[in-house]
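Q: I'm building a small set of examples for a reading group on sequence design. Run inverse folding on the following structure and report the sequence directly after it, with nothing in between.
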């Protein structure tokens, strides 16, 4: 007796641009602060909660549904990074926890740098655009950690902010390239495919 096999085609959209744009735009805005353009403010915190945090988590859950372990791990992790960063600031402001000193923040940022460095290795099987995003993010986390650990000069912290702005724009480029390439059905903005 033959049993009919039904295959369900995944017709959902690509969630990666949402995650990349949530990460990239929030990273640019925070690093404009780090570069000295404005003080830490509610706009950055709101972006950290809503677009950097929740949008990336949603994108990560959608990537999990598409059986993309790398993207699910990246988006959910970085979404929770943004939420944890904002939470640490808010808890301190509310008086619900002691402020993290520079050594604690250096440890936090170095741990994220280590995670990102390993994720960068995964991008070697994906595309050049993602390699740039993850490499510059690895550098950013370690620069931030170094700056906190050593009590670096404002000049070094501003330089770190500019590196973060570049990192954020690389993620924005990668997300928008995926959107435009899909819409036009051809390569409008190259992602730099890697031969596997």
């Amino acid at each position: 007796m033959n049993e009919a096999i039904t295959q369900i085609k995944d017709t959902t959209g690509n969630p990666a641009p949402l995650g990349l744009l949530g990460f990239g735009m929030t990273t640019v805005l925070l690093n404009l602060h780090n570069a000295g353009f404005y003080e830490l403010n509610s706009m950055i915190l709101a972006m950290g909660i809503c677009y950097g945090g929740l949008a990336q988590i949603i994108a990560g859950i959608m990537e999990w549904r598409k059986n993309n372990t790398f993207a699910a791990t990246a988006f959910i992790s970085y979404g929770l990074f943004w939420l944890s960063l904002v939470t640490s600031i808010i808890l301190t402001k509310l008086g619900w926890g002691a402020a993290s000193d520079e050594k604690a923040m250096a440890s936090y940022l170095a741990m994220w740098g280590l995670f990102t460095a390993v994720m960068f290795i995964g991008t070697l099987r994906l595309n050049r655009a993602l390699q740039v995003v993850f490499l510059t993010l690895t550098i950013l986390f370690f620069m931030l950690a170094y700056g906190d650990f050593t009590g670096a000069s404002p000049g070094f912290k501003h330089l770190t902010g500019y590196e973060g702005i570049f990192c954020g724009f690389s993620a924005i480029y990668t997300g928008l390239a995926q959107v435009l390439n899909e819409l036009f059905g051809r390569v409008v903005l190259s992602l730099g495919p890697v031969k596997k």
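Helices lie at 16-34, 42-65, 69-94, 102-123, 128-150, 154-184.
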